[in-house]
Write a structure and sequence with these properties.
- This protein has ten helices and 15 strands.
- With 331 residues, the chain is an alpha/beta fold.
- It has two domains: 141 residues, no CATH class; 149 residues, Vaccinia Virus protein VP39 (Rossmann fold, 3-Layer(aba) Sandwich), CATH 3.40.50.
Length: 331
């Protein structure tokens, strides 16, 4: 697997999970920075001899550069620097100490020139994203990748086993993982209750709920999203989790460049597929284009749109059942 942004190899899920316990662990000489996120930092701690630095120390380094560039007030709290996205982003029992190239910084203050300086002077950074205060894909807009690479992994622990999910910070919305994700728990409960032949993750994003169904060996799983970059990463995540899904070759039918060039579409576009005892299919398009493509059998659909206004959800649910039949739930 190759990153669509920087071209480097992306490790499969098993390799990410094997290294998770030590990825952000301090060495015996590491010391916490001890900053209050609601106050400006009073120093910039250097990395330990092991090459790691506590997360708040890395953010203090970014704070100092943004202040020096005139983009942040000296008295601005540390928390205003931006959103740190560890790679991999997983539930942690203790504050992380970062090795080089392990953090994507999403900041509303960064500019192209300051982002280049941040990358040059802070070794822990993997990429810098300009935060445009939006949800990527919700209205066709994205954040801005300013420097480096902004593809990162998240780890989700599900009742059927762990998943590693890649996404691009600038084009896919953030999902902060916890030890128990209510949407994942609701999906697993629905799968065990209905035992479907066909599971549809109709607003799949990068594929979390559909891959939960894959871990439960539902015969046919369809992951669909109207936003092209998210659909492409859902296909990549099929491949990243092949070992846990017990599947073979993943056919990638569209490139990231193709789906980014036409990020919104209504008619179904095949993105990726796994064929065999279990069929796993990824598509881009409106959810209303899916029903004619579904095989026969008991159907279960997860509908998880961004806008969850109750009356809107009721209309979508009723329309889906008229089009596709089967069971529907809102995770």
């Amino acid at each position: 697997m190759h990153c669509p942004v920087c071209g480097e190899d992306l490790p499969e899920a098993g390799i990410v999970l094997e290294g998770l316990a030590t990825r952000f662990a301090p060495c015996p000489a590491c010391r916490p920075a001890g900053f209050d996120p609601q106050r400006p930092p009073d120093r910039v701690p250097a990395p330990c001899a092991c090459g790691r630095r506590p997360l708040d120390g890395v953010m203090a380094a970014a704070h100092a550069i943004l202040v020096d560039e005139g983009l942040l007030r000296p008295d601005a709290p540390l928390a205003t620097v931006g959103t740190p996205l560890l790679s991999p982003l997983a539930p942690l029992r203790r504050p992380p100490h970062l090795p080089p190239a392990s953090l994507v910084l999403q900041s509303p203050h960064a500019t192209p020139s300051s982002a280049r300086r941040l990358m040059a002077e802070i070794p822990e950074l993997k990429g810098v994203v300009g935060d445009r205060q939006l949800i990527p894909g919700a209205d066709g807009r994205t954040h801005d990748l300013l420097a480096g690479c902004d593809v990162y992994a998240t780890v989700r622990f599900t009742p059927a086993g762990p998943l590693v999910l890649y996404r691009q910070a600038s084009s896919c919305h953030i999902e902060a993982p916890g030890l128990a994700d209510p949407k994942v728990v609701a999906t697993d409960r629905a799968l065990r209750r209905f035992l479907p032949d066909v599971f549809v993750d109709a607003c799949a994003g990068v594929g979390t709920l559909g891959l939960v169904a894959g871990l439960r060996f539902v015969p046919t799983v369809v992951l669909n999203d109207r936003w092209g970059p998210a659909a492409w990463f859902a296909g990549l995540n099929l491949e990243a989790n092949r070992a846990a899904l017990l599947v073979g070759k993943v056919d990638h039918l569209r490139s990231f460049a193709e789906l980014s060039a036409t990020p919104l579409c209504d008619d179904p576009v095949p993105v990726a597929a796994v064929h065999g005892e279990q069929e796993l299919l990824v598509s881009q398009g409106t959810l209303w284009a899916i029903p004619p493509l579904l095989p026969a059998g008991l159907r279960l659909a997860a509908l998880d749109p961004f806008d969850k206004e109750p009356a809107r959800l009721a209309r979508i649910t009723a329309k889906w059942q008229n089009c596709a039949g089967g069971e529907v739930f809102i995770p």
